[in-house]
Amino acid sequence: MTMLMAMVISILRLPAVKTRVGLSRSAIYLAVSRAEFPRPVQLGARAVGWLESEIEEWIRERVKQSRKLQ
User: How far is 17 from 45, CA to CA, in rounded Å?
Assistant: First the structure.
């Protein structure tokens, strides 16, 4: 089994992303447009999602930045 096969890739839809990061829909899309938040993955004609791993990394980086300021 290769490393890639062993990794589980999860995609989060917007309600789950909003809950995890504590931002509104408009704040998330504004941050995406400013390249300050992970870009969503197109799932279909009218559906997008975010890679869970990228959201988790974004949260970790925000915590690191917050702790440096103190």
Answer: 20
Other CB atoms within a 10 A radius of the CB of residue 16 amount to 15
pTM of the model: 0.85
Domain limits of the chain? 14-69
Structure tokens that stand for 26 in this block: 């408009």
Using one digit for the tens of pLDDT, what is the confidence trace for 26-66? 999 999 999 999 999 999 999 999 999 999 999 999 999 99
What DSSP string runs through 2-51? -HHHHPPP-EE-HHHHHHHH---HHHHHHHHHTTSSPPPEEEETTEEEEE
